[in-house]
Amino acid sequence: MQRDTRQRRAIRRAFEEAGHPLSPQELLDLAQEDVKSLGIATVYRNIRALQEEGWLETVELPGEPPRYEVAGKGHHHHFHCRDCDRVFEVEGCPGNIQAITPEGFKLERHEFVLYGLCEECRT
Amino acid sequence: MQRDTRQRRAIRRAFEEAGHPLSPQELLDLAQEDVKSLGIATVYRNIRALQEEGWLETVELPGEPPRYEVAGKGHHHHFHCRDCDRVFEVEGCPGNIQAITPEGFKLERHEFVLYGLCEECRT
DNA sequence: AACATATTGGGAGAACATAATCAAGAAACC
DNA sequence: GGTTTCTTGATTATGTTCTCCCAATATGTT
Questions:
Q1: pLDDT beyond 90 at B110
Q2: Could you say which architecture CATH assigns to the domain A6-70?
Q3: B83: nearest CA in chain A?
Q4: What is the CA angle B91-B95-B99, rounded to 5?
Q5: Identity of the residue in B91, B96, B114 whose CB atom sits nearest the CB atom of A94
Q6: Quick check: A5 CB within 7 A of strand D?
Q7: pLDDT tens figures, A66-108
Q8: A79 vs chain B: nearest CA distance in angstroms?
């Protein structure tokens, strides 16, 4: 059976407290505040386990290794800060996507990525 | 000075005839129709040269290695076919992007990626 | 507390994309 | 045509991300 370890708790907590998608390295850094001995292998292992469990979802952005976020948030997009490199959630969705889909193509889903400076880095 | 080689001609021609972004491997396959001995190292070398020259631009899509397309096309987005894995250009741009940008964030640019089936794969 | 076993940490290593190396070949110029 | 030197092709190396392995450790159970 699945055990409730300090490491797994720290990892889950990091996601909940961060409130935005985390890369494995970001996750390691945050979770190490709870469990300083945490290793990167454990991070990857738990990311996989939490994904299979349906608790985590993958966030893929152009030219970036995957990040992960807590699942079940409903349709949203992401904002990537070019300064601090963090990714934030964006509510809502711009207008008529079907309208720009090429003739004859079947649109199934879409991703939208905003770039710029987050509130903190803007100053 | 820069020499005009069969390989370089084949690579340029592949981009022009394809009319959509190419991965290094796709480029190799296409350009080998002209120059069967073409090697992957030459492909990467010429991609870099053509980029520095401003003739090529990088197209980054989520979770994918970069593709490249002929530069100077003006603002557009991309459609990724889940079946044939090819990427196509999409004209136009959906509505009000600033409207969904989080409070206090500075929006500088955006990417938009459509997914589904291209005309050929739809059948 | 003692046991059974899931989990961890750290290092080795697989997988992938791309860059460096270098001898051989091919453009450009005389 | 001969020479110079840029370019190529094949191989090897590199960087990155992620997985595997295994002895040591921690958890849940009795």
A1: yes
A2: Orthogonal Bundle (1.10)
A3: A106
A4: 145
A5: B96
A6: yes
A7: 999 999 999 999 999 999 999 999 998 887 899 999 999 999 9
A8: 8
Residue B58: enclosing H or E segment and its boundaries? strand B56-59
Residue B96 pLDDT level (bands cut at 50, 70, 90): confident
Q: Tell me the CATH number of domain A77-122, given options 1.20.1260, 3.30.1490, 3.30.1760, 1.10.150.
A: 3.30.1490
- Is residue A106's beta carbon less than 7 angstroms from any atom in nucleic acid strand D? no
Domain boundaries, chain B: 6-70, 77-122
Report how far apart the first and last C-alpha atoms of chain B are (Å, whole number).
Answer: 49
Whole-number pLDDT of residue B113: 96
Which residues are CB-neighbours of A15 under 8 A, at least 6 positions away? Answer: A22, A27, A56, A68, A69, A70
Identity of residue A53: E
Count, in order, helices (H) and strands (E) of chain A. Answer: 4, 5
- The reply to whether A70 has its C-beta less than 7 Å from any atom of strand C is no
Segment B17-73, tens digit of pLDDT: 999 999 999 999 999 999 999 999 999 999 999 999 999 999 999 999 999 999 999
CB spacing of A102 vs B117 below 8 angstroms: no
User: Which residues 20-39 of B interface with strand D at a CB distance below 7 A?
Assistant: 35, 37-39
